[in-house]
TrEMBL record:
Name the record gives this protein: Pimeloyl-ACP methyl ester carboxylesterase
GO molecular function: hydrolase activity
Lineage of source species: Bacteria, Bacillati, Bacillota, Clostridia, Lachnospirales
A matching Pfam family: Abhydrolase_1
Occurrences of domain AB hydrolase-1 (ranges): 39-138
Species per Swiss-Prot/TrEMBL record: Murimonas intestini
């Protein structure tokens, strides 16, 4: 499926921009709007925004209702007060309630996978399936303390670098294709250095307090072939070995694997959903 910038802009215009308000802030989301048998909700990663899934729109909106959103402290969902994974999950529940969506497939990239896992913990009856995209599991048994240094000090380390240099380095290391690098670079620039540090501190401080999720639904773990971000590859493979959840490796892709190789990602992910959930 074509994923050129001009083609993407046309599709984005077809997504309906909406928001909810609560005591924590205003949370923005984008809705394809069709009434479908199945809804898929995409959760972007840390310091990205809803545009991370632009290359999924054409494929998924043909058969599914699609929701993308700017998670709390990202994109247009700022300012935001009192962040926690539980509150972010509650924000999504409010979105689904507003749209009269009772259940959905949850697909979370990187730290978006954390919010999706939290949603399953709090609202298990609303999850049709969980798809982890270059993310890692809840549960400290998977992590060594020495390996958590990078996440514990992420914003402090990033603070040292000139922000434009940081944005270029982060985009280059997270993506394998130029279109994916440029998209992530632009989202980082929109977020700004203060926003990046605020989001990183909020999301990473939550992780050690999260217990492993017992999923009541089918699970697919996805990993970019060239994902070198932190210990994501190591943790994802351990997650698959420990639980037996299937692991799908996306060829010619790095940490933002859904954007690096959208054709392979879309096809294989839909095969999983069709087999696991019985959607036609």
């Amino acid at each position: 499926m074509t994923c050129g910038r001009r083609f993407i802009r046309k599709l984005v215009h077809k997504m309906i921009k909406k928001y909810i308000d609560n005591e924590r802030g205003r949370i923005f989301y984008w809705d394809s709007g069709q009434m479908r048998e199945c809804t898929i909700i995409f959760f972007h990663g840390l310091t990205a925004d809803h545009t991370l899934f632009d290359c999924q729109l054409a494929f998924w909106t043909e058969k599914y209702r699609v929701i993308t959103w700017d998670m709390p402290l990202h994109g247009e969902s700022r300012p935001y007060r009192d962040f926690s994974f539980a509150n972010a999950a509650e924000d999504l529940r409010q979105i689904m309630e507003k749209e009269e969506i009772t259940h959905a497939v949850l697909a979370g990239q990187s730290a978006g996978g954390y919010v999706a896992q939290a949603f399953v913990q709090y609202y298990p009856e609303m999850a049709d399936a969980f798809i982890s995209i270059d993310s890692t599991p809840f549960g400290m048994k998977y992590y060594k303390k020495s390996e958590l240094f990078w996440t514990d000090h992420y914003s402090a380390i990033a603070r040292i670098y000139p922000y434009k240099l940081y944005c270029r380095a982060a985009a280059s290391s997270s993506s394998r294709t130029e279109k994916a690098r440029q998209s992530f670079y632009e989202s980082l620039c929109r977020l700004g250095k203060k926003g990046m540090m605020e989001a990183a501190d909020a999301y990473y401080k939550e992780l050690p307090n999260c217990s492993e999720v017992i999923f009541p639904c089918p699970v697919l773990l996805i990993l970019g072939e060239y994902d070198r971000t932190g210990y994501v590859s190591k943790y994802t493979r351990a997650w698959s070995r420990e639980t037996g959840y299937p692991l799908l490796v996306i060829p010619d892709a790095a940490h933002n694997s859904n954007y690096d190789n959208p054709e392979f990602f879309n096809q294989k992910t839909e095969e999983f959903i069709a087999a696991a959930c019985g959607f036609s």
